[in-house]
Sequence to fold (135 residues):
Amino acid sequence: MSKIDFKKELKHLYNPSGKEISLVDVPPMNFVMIDGAGDPNTAKEYEEAIEALYAVSYALKFAVKKEQAIDYGVMPLEGLWWADDMSDFAASKDSWKWTADVCYACPVSDCPEAGGKEEGDAGFFESQVSKFRRR
Fold:
């Protein structure tokens, strides 16, 4: 079984040139995401979100490897940051809202673990996430 390196395959998205600005087309992709608020440097919520994202990402990676014989590297953490009042954005990170996310596996159109085509038809990802529980 060979290992797929999506960061290398999507180099134009994950390692663009630092010398010039370029316009890129981003294909539809699958992400595991958690929304939250507060200073990411100090908020416990952010720390717990990152831990949860990587726990789910690695569990999914190994489930795909075992059940579908596809191996790939877990993608890097990504994030979106904003404030309800953007004039406060530079003043205080405490007012920040964020979405932390990790892309899983591959573009939607090529992804064997993407959701089913019919409403209510759980795909591979959804079937794996449903195995998680809280204590």
User: Anything to note?
Assistant: Residues 3 and 71 are 5 Å apart (CA to CA).
